[in-house]
Design goal:
The chain is 44% helix and 13% strand. It is of the alpha/beta class and 336 residues long. The chain folds into 3 domains: 97 residues, no CATH class; 129 residues, no CATH class; 79 residues, Orthogonal Bundle (Arc Repressor Mutant, subunit A), CATH 1.10.10.10. It has a 4-stranded mixed beta sheet with strand order 3-4-1-5, with no helix packed on it. The chain has a 4-stranded mixed beta sheet with strand order 2-6-8-7. It has a 3-stranded antiparallel beta sheet with strand order 9-11-10, with helices on both faces. A hairpin with a 2-residue loop joins strand 10 and strand 11. Helix 5 runs antiparallel to helix 7. The longest helix is centred in the middle third of the chain and has 22 residues. The radius of gyration is 22 Å and the shape is globular. The termini are far apart. The C terminus is likely disordered.
């Protein structure tokens, strides 16, 4: 169990990351190759990722270089997920290159003692070896993470919308409630399922919550207590459609494709909306809005999450793509 201790100052400084952390998503996706747990949630990605890696002749590098450094275990080196990655992939990779050799050696030794490190791992303290690692991470990201980026970003934006609404409804503590079955808020401590028993005292530094598309199961925090407190946690995944059904990608107006009311419901969900808000936006009853939302959800255009006593509806990547495809013809659409 991981226990994260908050003060009032920590609650005020707790925030949600603006987008996915590219280096963390690399590491979390590497874990997906090492476990069948949750495989159903990544079935499309897993299949296409294997094909792309084979086409790039990258499978051996994956197996012998990247996977041994990021075992699905209690620990992998913190220097692989520097905070600079919040500014983008390039900044994160530069931070890996700039990591002090002494820190690299210390963390490789922890990996050796906890999970087992490959014999060549201490050479990562050398600039040349670390440059090779950064090159492999960039190739891996471009090959299997970037092509899936739009879907991952849409899911994380939906999670940010849910966290923001929780803060508006319940204050700062609201952001710490409902983070998933592996996390439980009991003021002033956030309890997290964890492979080891550990206490993390924030001491006024606050906590950065980083929702992760490729994480599955237990949340993860950095092992070194002096680093900026970060908690990576997994999204709740649901089966999704990956292609536009029928002629929904034709560029025709939403009202023509979906009907005027259902199109209005889809637009209302663009920024996250409860069933009542969908009803007010579309000018229909709550029961009618719920029925339209069910139809959109069944066709993979929105996703619905329980939020306190309400249900929050947000777009899926498919719904967002449909909304974008309709913009060029919106002027010809019937008006509500």
């Amino acid at each position: 169990m991981l226990r994260i201790h908050f003060t009032d100052a920590d609650l005020a400084r707790t925030r949600v990351a603006a987008g996915p952390d590219p280096l963390w998503e690399i590491c979390a996706s590497l874990h997906r190759f090492q476990s069948r747990h949750g495989r159903w949630a990544y079935a499309d990605w897993y299949r296409t990722a294997r094909d792309r890696l084979q086409a790039q002749h990258f499978t051996r590098t994956l197996r012998t270089f990247l996977l041994p450094l990021v075992p699905r275990a209690a620990y992998f080196p913190d220097f692989l997920t520097p905070r600079e990655a919040a500014e983008g992939l390039d900044s994160g990779l530069e931070a890996i290159l700039a990591a002090p050799p002494s820190r690299v050696l210390d963390e490789v030794d922890i990996l050796r003692r906890t999970s087992g490190a490959p014999a060549w791992a201490p050479r990562l303290a050398e600039p040349g070896m670390r440059k090779e690692l950064v090159g492999a991470m960039r190739t891996y990201y471009d090959t299997v993470i970037a092509p899936h980026g739009e879907h991952a970003l849409a899911r994380i934006e939906a999670e940010r919308s849910a966290r923001a609404r929780a803060v508006l409804d319940h204050g700062a503590e609201g952001a710490l409630r409902g983070l998933g079955p592996c996390l439980r808020w009991q003021r002033p401590v956030l309890h997290a399922a964890y492979p080891e028993d550990r206490d993390l005292r924030l001491d006024g530094r606050g906590l950065l919550l980083v929702p992760s598309y490729f994480s599955w199961g237990n949340p993860v925090s950095l092992a070194e207590p002096t680093l900026e407190p970060v908690l990576f946690y997994s999204l709740s995944h649901e089966p999704h459609h990956s292609t536009l059904p029928g002629d929904l990608g034709s560029g025709a107006s939403l009202a023509t494709l979906l009907g005027r009311t259902r199109a209005a419901v889809l637009r209302a969900a663009a920024n996250g909306a409860t069933t009542g808000e969908l009803a007010r936006f579309a000018g229909v009853s709550a029961s009618s809005a719920s029925q339209h939302a069910t139809t959109l959800r069944d066709n993979g255009l929105i996703v619905s999450h329980r939020h306190a006593s309400s249900v929050l509806h947000t777009l899926t990547p498919l719904g967002a793509a449909l909304l974008r495809s309709s913009r060029g013809t919106r002027s010809t659409a019937p008006t509500a």
